[in-house]
Amino acid sequence: MVRVYVLLFLALLFNSCNYSKETNSLTQAALYEVGELYPFYNNNPSAGQILSQIYETLLELEDDYRTLSPKLAAFWQASDDQKHFKITLKPDIYFHNGERLTAEHVLNSYNLLIQKNPQSSLSKVVERVEILDSLNVVFHLNHSSGGFLYSLASPFSLMISTRTVSESGNKNDTIYYGTGPFIKDNFSGPVYSIKKNKQYQGIKSELDRVYFVRLLDNENREYSLTKGEVDILSNISGHQIDRLKWLGKIDYYVQRPFDIFFLGFNNKNKEMKNIFLRKAIASAIDLKKLVFNVNRGNAVVAMGPLPEIYYNYEGSIQLEYNLNESKKYLLNSGLGKSVNLNIIIPKMALTRETLLETIKTQLSKIGISLNVIYSYNWDEHDKLVKDPKSHLFIDGARSEIIGDPEPFLYSLFSSNSVFNTMNYNSPDVDSLLLMLKKEGDANQRFILCNQIMKHIENDVPALFLYHVKSHYAYNKEKIKKMVVNPYGLIQYHKVQLN
Question: What residues pair up with 191 in beta bridges, in sequence order?
Answer without folding.
Answer: 213
